[in-house]
């Protein structure tokens, strides 16, 4: 038992060391896994390396490559333009529109890519008299919802890790749980931060901002152009300019002629149309295969559709290689490799015995979801998912509660706290409002994010885990 406890302490210590020293978690986690495996577990080096999750590597690389092409060829920009034009001047619908847009972008492999909407949405909220907290929570909730899509990082890590330890979690069910939970939180934000008053204002015929019937107008656009993300953002393509009667920057139009009130949107190129068709094909393939009772390998499907797009436009295919999320592959791989060593040593079973002392399985599930949310509010959500999903196995080994329900609850609980200003998402939301508004945003996001540490487990354990016990 001493060796198992030492290994668990080293596992926690590596997390703490990586956080304090701001080094890549995957690098030292993989090295520590080798050291513990060889020194404490009596494993051979091939046995340690055998724990590296190759299937997750294929998923992450395939997904980020495919959607990297969609970003590089401007398809994502075109989708954003058309979505914002459809909303027009209906201020009450803008937070919902940004929820959907952010979820869509977040579903394209990298959840944090959805943050491209923050510097667009916050100035737009100010222009239309929308509480910046409502817009910020709409963006944050959309990011969390899309992140659990079968094609995005949190979803891949959660259901991929669950499957690696023989927990049957349907990726579409996980996605549906995340969307449902975040829509409920968005409804609460509408209620708390004046969203429903916007509907009454629009219904009374009061204009909002200066938008016209066709959507954003010239007066609105300069502020959005000035708020565009920095050039290094993955959705920004340096040196690329669209040839039309108006310029487009990061998906937001800026008019050359200030007299034009409703500029025509640029038409999609042939490559962009092909990309949209491939996106629809990917979604349809996943749904059809799942409906037929098969387990679709999303990574392989993304490589297949990515190959089609690469052959159509080799230059964007080459650019997309640099967008592959190797950093996350290494981090998740290192964590899961170490967890494999812990399983080999019996340390995971030891945790199961400790969890049984918490009380009922329901209480244990609540505690682990609470721990996941609390730590994730200050640390890497991806790291928490990769570490806690395997360690939650003992909670479901008795069969008293459904494994899929516990893992889905744990995943979403670890994500909805990310609007805390202590995380990347919350910090970005604070940074994209005017300086005088930042203290209020920081205060309210802190309260909201930390309240989710309790609200998340209560909501998700109550609605997912509790019913499986009867």
From TrEMBL:
Signal peptide coordinates: none
Transmembrane regions: 26-45, 52-72, 92-122, 134-160, 172-193, 271-292, 298-317, 324-342, 362-389, 401-425, 445-466
A matching Pfam family: MatC_N
Keywords: Membrane, Transmembrane, Transmembrane helix
Protein name according to UniProt: SLC13 family permease
Keyword Metal-binding: no
InterPro entries: MatC_N
Residue ranges constituting the Dicarboxylate carrier MatC N-terminal domain according to the UniProt record: 1-147
Recorded superkingdom: Bacteria
């Amino acid at each position: 038992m001493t060796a198992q406890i030492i290994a668990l302490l080293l596992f926690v210590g590596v997390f703490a060391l990586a956080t304090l020293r701001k080094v890549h978690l995957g690098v030292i986690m993989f090295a520590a896994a080798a050291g513990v495996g060889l020194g404490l577990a009596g494993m051979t080096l091939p046995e340690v390396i055998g724990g590296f999750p190759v299937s997750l590597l294929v998923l992450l690389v395939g997904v980020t490559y495919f959607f990297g092409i969609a970003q590089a060829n401007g398809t994502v920009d075109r989708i954003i333009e058309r979505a914002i034009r459809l909303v027009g001047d209906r201020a009450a619908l803008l937070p919902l529109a940004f929820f959907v847009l952010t979820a869509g972008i977040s579903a394209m492999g990298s959840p944090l890519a959805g943050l491209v909407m923050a510097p667009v949405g916050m100035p737009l909220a100010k222009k239309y008299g929308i509480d910046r907290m409502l817009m910020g929570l709409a963006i944050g909730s959309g990011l969390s919802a899309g992140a659990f899509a079968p094609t995005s990082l949190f979803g891949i890590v959660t259901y991929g890790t669950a499957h690696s330890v023989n927990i049957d979690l349907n990726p579409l069910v996980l996605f549906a749980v995340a969307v449902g939970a975040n829509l409920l939180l968005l409804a609460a934000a509408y209620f708390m931060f004046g969203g429903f008053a916007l509907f009454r204002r629009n219904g009374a015929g009061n204009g909002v901002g200066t938008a016209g019937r066709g959507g954003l107008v010239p007066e609105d656009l300069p502020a959005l152009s000035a708020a565009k993300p920095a050039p290094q953002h993955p959705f920004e393509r340096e040196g690329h300019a669209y040839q039309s009667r108006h310029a487009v920057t990061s998906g937001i139009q800026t008019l050359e002629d200030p007299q034009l009130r409703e500029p025509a949107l640029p038409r999609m190129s042939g490559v962009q149309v092909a990309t949209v068709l491939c996106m629809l094909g990917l979604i349809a393939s996943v749904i059809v295969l799942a409906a037929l009772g098969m387990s679709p390998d999303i990574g392989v499907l993304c490589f297949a559709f990515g190959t089609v797009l690469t052959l159509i436009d080799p230059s964007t295919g080459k650019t997309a290689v640099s967008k592959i999320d190797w950093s996350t592959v290494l981090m998740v791989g290192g964590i899961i490799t170490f967890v494999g060593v812990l399983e080999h040593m019996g340390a995971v079973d030891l945790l199961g015995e400790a969890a049984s002392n918490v009380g009922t399985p329901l209480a244990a599930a609540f505690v682990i979801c609470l721990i996941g949310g609390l730590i994730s509010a200050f640390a890497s959500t991806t790291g928490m998912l990769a570490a806690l999903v395997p360690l939650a196995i003992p909670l479901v080994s008795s069969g008293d509660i459904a494994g899929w329900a516990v893992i889905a609850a744990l995943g979403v609980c670890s994500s909805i706290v990310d609007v805390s200003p202590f995380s990347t998402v919350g910090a970005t939301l604070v940074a994209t409002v005017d300086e005088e508004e930042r203290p209020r945003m920081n205060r309210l996001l802190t309260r909201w994010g930390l309240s989710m540490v309790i609200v998340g487990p209560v909501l998700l354990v109550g609605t997912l885990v509790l019913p499986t016990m009867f």
